[in-house]
Amino acid sequence: RKEVEQDPGPFNVPEGATVAFNCTYSNSASQSFFWYRQDCRKEPKLLMSVYSSGNEDGRFTAQLNRASQYISLLIRDSKLSDSATYLCVVRPSGGYQKVTFGIGTKLQVIP
Amino acid sequence: EAGVVQSPRYKIIEKKQPVAFWCNPISGHNTLYWYLQNLGQGPELLIRYENEEAVDDSQLPKDRFSAERLKGVDSTLKIQPAELGDSAVYLCASSLTTRRGDTEAFFGQGTRLTVV
Hints:
The complex is a heterodimer. By secondary structure, chain A is mostly beta strands. In chain A, 0% of the residues lie in helices and 56% in strands. In chain B, strands 2, 4, 5, 6, 9, 12 and 13 form a seven-stranded mixed β-sheet that branches. A four-stranded antiparallel β-sheet of chain B has the order 1-3-8-7, with no helix packed on it. Chain B has a two-stranded antiparallel sheet with strand order 10-11. The chains are: A mainly beta, B mainly beta.
C-alpha cells in the first residue's frame, strides 16, 4: 500500500458546485497534514494545513479522520479559478520529518 | 521578497550528456529540498539539506545523480550521464527548520528537463 493515496480524477464539476476529495495515508504515526495546490505547469503552493479539529478558510474546509487515516478537502461554490491539481501531503512524527506527497487529484471546474 | 529561484527553466539535452540545475532558496531558509516530479505524479524527494548537510539522500540515485550545497545557501543538482527516463520536472524547495519543526515549504518554478 502506498504511503499516501489519492484519486487522480479528473473531477469535472460545474461552477458553483461543492466537491470533496479524500486522501488516505498508511502510516498511523503521521502527525502533520497539508493540502497543496498545483496549477498546470506551475509549482505546488500551500493551500492549507489540516488540523485535528478541522479547519476552514473561506470556501475551503479541511478535515482529518485519524481513526480511518484519511484527510479531506471540501470546496464549496466552485470557481473556474479553482481548476488545479490538489496534492495531499503527509508528515510523520519524529526527529526528522520526511514529507510524502500524494499523486494529486485533478479538479476541472466547467462553466 | 524573492522566492525560491531555479535555473534554467527548461533544458533539452541528448542522452548520456551531463546536466546541472541550480537553486537559490529563500533568504534565511536553512532547509533545502530537491524533488523530482513526473507527469501526473506528485513530487518525490531526492535529497534534503539542513544547512550544508544532506540529512536525507536515500532516494537519490547516486550512480548518476549528485548534489551539493557547499555554503549552506544555494545548491546544484547534477545528472551525469542523463538517461531518457530522467525527463521530468526538477523542483527545489526551501523551508525554515527549528527545534519545533519545519515551516511551510516554498517551491521554485522548477526546471523542466527533456532528454532526447
